[in-house]
Amino acid sequence: MRRTLVSAIFLLLGSMLAFGQSDAAKDARDLHQDRREIRHDRRDIRHDRRDIRQDARDLNKDRVERNAERRDIRHDEADIAKDRRETREDLRKGDKADAAKERADIARDRRDINQDRREVRAENRDMARDRGDIRHDRRGIRHDRRDIRHDRRDVRSDRRDLRQDRRDRD
After folding, report:
1. How many CA atoms lie within 13 A of 156 on its CB side?
2. How far apart, in whole angstroms, are the C-alpha atoms of residue 122 and residue 128?
3. How many angstroms from the chain centroid is the CA of residue 109?
4. Cα–Cα distance between 35 and 156 in angstroms, integer?
5. What pLDDT digit, counting tens, does each position of 77-128 carry?
6. What is the rounded distance in angstroms from the CA atom of residue 24 to the CA atom of residue 166?
7. Burial classification of residue 104, based on how many CB atoms lie within 10 Å of its CB (0-12 exposed, 13-18 middle, 19 or more buried)
8. Pick from 17, 57, 11: nearest CA to 165
9. CA-CA distance, 62 to 49, in Å (whole number)?
10. What is the rounded distance in angstroms from the CA atom of residue 116 to the CA atom of residue 62?
11. Does the reported pTM lie above 0.85?
């Protein structure tokens, strides 16, 4: 009876120790998995930052295009002013045919100006949307970095606990 009781105790104790070791191995695997996830998260943040830099470059290219459209508008306005002067001069000379041609040029330049203004407004809207997207992405990276810091802190804490558990078992 005593022998069976002692053997049952040893069997129970052995199973508890074996269970504790498998739990420690599981904790080590979880710790390894957590560290891998942190590495992947950091890689994702690097990719996101690269995407933001590319988006900022694209935004600068859009600014250049918009400024070129504005320059075209100014040139077209100057052409209209020149055509108006020529129209007045032609009417003063009595040359109605040339005056009609100048009026046609003025109408064409006005259409160009209106088209350019529509394009500038559309580009301004797109640029504002892109700036908002970049701002949102930067904010997201800031939150992701904070989450990684918390995850790293948790991993360090888990590693400390794992070491402490190993020391306690020894």
Report:
1. 6
2. 10
3. 40
4. 10
5. 999 999 999 999 999 999 999 999 999 999 999 999 999 999 999 999 999 9
6. 8
7. exposed
8. 17
9. 20
10. 14
11. no
